[in-house]
Amino acid sequence: MSNGNEDLDTLIALMAKLPGLGPRSARRAVLHLIKKRSLVLLPLAEAMHRVGATVRECLNCGNVCTSDLCDICQSKKRDIGQIAVVEDVADLWAMERSGVFKGRYHVLGGTLSALDAIGPDELRIPKLADRVAAENVTEVILALGATIDGQTTAHYIAEHLPNVTVTSLAQGVPVGGELDYLDDGTISAALNARKAL
How many Cα neighbours within 13 Å face the side chain of 169? Predict the structure, then answer.
């Protein structure tokens, strides 16, 4: 683009780095933001600044929040006996969107992968074992994707949590599927039909 529009070029280049946006889509999005400056652009910029300054990882579960503990971990209405283990925050949000699960979560931050040299200590697996031992957990639900790495991670966790019931999501989660891309009904059916590992 250029012509003395370095700030616009920078904004477009940054927008193009977002998932689902390429250079053309980023240009269209930036033009829309400019046309809706007071309604969208300025409030978006303020919200992004606030989130950038305050967002952090929940010390307990790994969710993103703006305080030490997220709303889910602080809630007295959640079932403290159940923890759903998810790969990342997008999966936690997908399960919350379904409205079916009333327990708490544990975000691993990825899956085990020998090829990428990701072992249990690179993930939040030791923290999960600590939580199960310290909290009154009766069931750990492995809500991991039906990928090879997801299943490897599920089996590893199941083997290392001997004193608690470990279940996994059942029907509705396709092989190779990721939770963030599933609809609410599919997540609900998979959660309700979970099975012991």
Answer: 31
